[in-house]
Amino acid sequence: MSSPSVETVPDLGRCDHCAVRHQAVCGALSDQELSRVNQLARRRTISAGQIIMSDEDPVEFFANVVSGVIKLTKTLVDGRQQIVGLLFPPDFLGRAFSTSNPYFAEAATDVEICCFAHDGFERLLKEYPDLEHRLFEKTLNELDSAREWMVLLGRKTAEEKVASFLLLLARRAAVTGCSHASAALLPTFQLPLTRSDIADYLGLTIETVSRQITRLKTTGIIKLLDNRLFVVPDMDALAKIAGQELPPVH
Amino acid sequence: MSSPSVETVPDLGRCDHCAVRHQAVCGALSDQELSRVNQLARRRTISAGQIIMSDEDPVEFFANVVSGVIKLTKTLVDGRQQIVGLLFPPDFLGRAFSTSNPYFAEAATDVEICCFAHDGFERLLKEYPDLEHRLFEKTLNELDSAREWMVLLGRKTAEEKVASFLLLLARRAAVTGCSHASAALLPTFQLPLTRSDIADYLGLTIETVSRQITRLKTTGIIKLLDNRLFVVPDMDALAKIAGQELPPVH
DNA sequence: CGACATGTTGAACCTCATCAACCGACGTGG
DNA sequence: CCACGTCGGTTGATGAGGTTCAACATGTCG
Q1: What does the pLDDT look like over B5-52, one tens digit per residue?
Q2: Does B52 share its domain with B143?
Q3: Interface membership of B25 toward A (CB under 8 Å)
Q4: Which residues in chain B touch residue A129, judged by CB atoms under 8 angstroms apart?
Q5: Three-point CA angle A210, A110, A89, nearest 5°
Q6: Is the same domain home to A168 and A117?
Q7: pTM of whole model > 0.90?
Q8: How many domains in chain A?
Q9: Nucleotide closest to A208 measured between CA and C1'
Q10: Angle (CA) A212 A216 A222, round 5°
Q11: What range defines the domain where residue A212 resides?
Q12: Among B72, B95, B150, beta carbon nearest to A153
């Protein structure tokens, strides 16, 4: 397992080549600490559609999202469903300090995660306050996002909802910097969700989502290279349609 | 200020008589630590309708809610508003680890809060991991609530929304145990919000809220002693209408 | 090739928003 | 003291935005 190395250099194992090593919660850890985490961690690959955690099960593990997208969903007794969160790399999956899961976690695309056993990880949180602090900050950001989404769900029109969602992805793509298309550096991204998932994320039906997308397409706000590959020629135009929140300055 | 006492007994000052001393984040602190917090804290009384924090201002302070109800709101440029959270005692107000406020905080009723200066409190968080941990747990609970509300906003009907809201208050009243009415111990509570606030919380209009309340009244699911005082004769019936989430057991 | 999943489009319907009138309570000033 | 305006709430009539139901297109996999 461990390569023959000078003993002062900790064995980081897979963590050493991990794509999200510094952005994930692990970023809080020193090399020494990370080598311990490494022994606790287990990579898993999950194909699209698989359920990762169920609200029927107790919390069994936590995980970092390494690649792909995970959707967190809640369901009413009659089957109505709502996506209450999307996890991208390097987000963290799992409800700390609770024995029960408050939602379903399902792979929206093929997904790679790095899992930690429940007990071991909670012990780690106790031992490394920096780790807990990092997780806390991530949680605060999630809370901010959730509340922004509440505005969308409660007050925005179908067109604004779809535009907001596309804007979210376009901005992510702009930051991540991976423009798939050669198209002169215009924000371009791959849809990670089906129409059905988008509907569940926006509190709409599939049909309405489809109609709004074709509308944005015909008005030229967006372009589709194929059914899943989007280009946004004018981010400001899209942002305008998305119905922005009150800016901080009055 | 400090009463002449044996020096081994820390001066808890107002904290000693504080109604939320043990439930609020302060519950994480020893008497020694609390006596220090006490010097940092300042009680404030705020009348209904006053703005406590604006998203236009930087984060200036944090606070414990001691009595009353605070609403957290977000607004779109054209004035559409959404309440993204309600704070009851002993909830915590303020976004830690950020220089800007993500929302408005407004007193829904007359409110008593216990304020801490921003810098002093963040220093305290660093020094007392237990305090930060407690705040973390509160944040996790807020996130759970926010996500539950997303299901309501995205997927529930007007009737279910109103019923869910009343159920929320009725359950709170049942726990807090303060039944205002002599009515044979039926869950009874005072509405802390105007119809307009309720509408902003549920993503509806005032008119729809009003109509749904009268509907629940005429079907006997709820009774009104006056415009603000509600009685729930049958919690299960109300819960049924509220459209429960999928129970943990399949 | 047929079966199935994903997505699009059309037509009818319905829930909820909108606009408007009205009510009672309250406070204020002439 | 009463007229007046305001505020919170209720009720009615109307219509638009989105859902529902249904048909069809497209792509994929055995």
Answers
A1: 444 455 556 788 888 989 999 998 888 888 888 888 999 999 999 999
A2: yes
A3: no
A4: 129, 132
A5: 95
A6: no
A7: yes
A8: 2
A9: D18
A10: 135
A11: 156-242
A12: B150
